[in-house]
Amino acid sequence: MTMIDVRGLTKRYGLDTVVDDLSFTVEAGQVTGFLGPNGAGKSTTMKVILGLASPTAGSVTIGGRRYRDLPVPLEEVGALLDAGAVHGGRKARDHLLALAAGNGLPRRRVDEVLARTGLESVAHKRAGGFSLGMRQRLGIAAALLGDPRVLIFDEPVNGLDPEGIRWIRDFMRSLAAEGRAVLVSSHLMNEMAQTADHLVVIGRGRLIADTGVAEFLRGRGEGTVLVRTPEPAEFALRLTATGAAVREGPGSALVVSGLASEEIGKLAAYHGTVLSELTPQRPSLEDAFMELTKDSVEYQGVTA
Ligand SMILES: Nc1ncnc2c1ncn2[C@@H]1O[C@H](COP(=O)(O)OP(=O)(O)OP(=O)(O)O)[C@@H](O)[C@H]1O
Ligand SMILES: [Mg+2]
What we know:
Structural class: alpha/beta
Number of strands: 13
Largest sheet: 6 strands, mixed
Distance between the termini: 39 Å
Strand content: 25-35%
Helix content: 25-40%
Bound molecules: adenosine-5'-triphosphate, magnesium ion
CATH class of the largest domain: Alpha Beta
Number of helices: 11
Strand order of the largest sheet: 5-6-7-3-8-9
CATH superfamily of the largest domain: P-loop containing nucleotide triphosphate hydrolases
């Protein structure tokens, strides 16, 4: 089910077109990764979805309604945009109690979200003394207060240590498993590939790719095979004779494309060639992402 519908969204700041005729949907029960290089327009798009910025053109709806038409917004959509935003002098639980009271949400939700985010033991500590990881959890607890079906997180793993990243990743997966729609932005492709079901990639405010993660992984093409042998020149000739493409890799290794490692091994055995290494290599996700967004980044470099 479509929970967020972004349609023909354009946002201009003065003469700058920051989001350019962007359309995509965010579905229930999935983590949708929102990817793009710095300045691509991710945060701006999220702000428009949340009614914090108005679109220049186009429309955005959450559960079929515009943000400003939601009767109790926090019951429809929760968001974590900037973890630093919590007032440091306030205790974690008091912060959430104030938020609940201000939005007409039941007090019991406060203890529920504290438990859910593992913050019970620090509920009576001041947020000012929290680590970044703890502040992120508090921000997520606040986003969950209204038990919303839609969650929006802007770069939630930025600056976190591996354990914090793992926690956030698992948490998003569990939210999606409950049937919620989760939109999470990042500029880290590898991170998103491990967290998201679906990817929306933008560059310079424009849609570059809108694809399932599995599909994206499949579509990034065949990898190469790294081959080491004491007789690289001779074996390179044997390889090219079968139609494979060979180029020189690090330390006189051969980088072979067009032939699977199994076939390369058989060819070596057939000719009695000694192999000291035979390693299949997939292009990294980061590489695929850079390739995909290359033009939008270069273009920005020229005009900035
Ligand atoms: N209030 C504003 N006024 C003018 N320009 C703005 C405003 N907010 C954002 N921009 C510009 O819009 C562009 C997109 O910014 P945005 O923050 O949406 O990108 P982003 O994809 O979130 O980038 P990052 O990965 O760095 O967070 C940038 O060039 C930014 O300078
Ligand atoms: Mg941003």
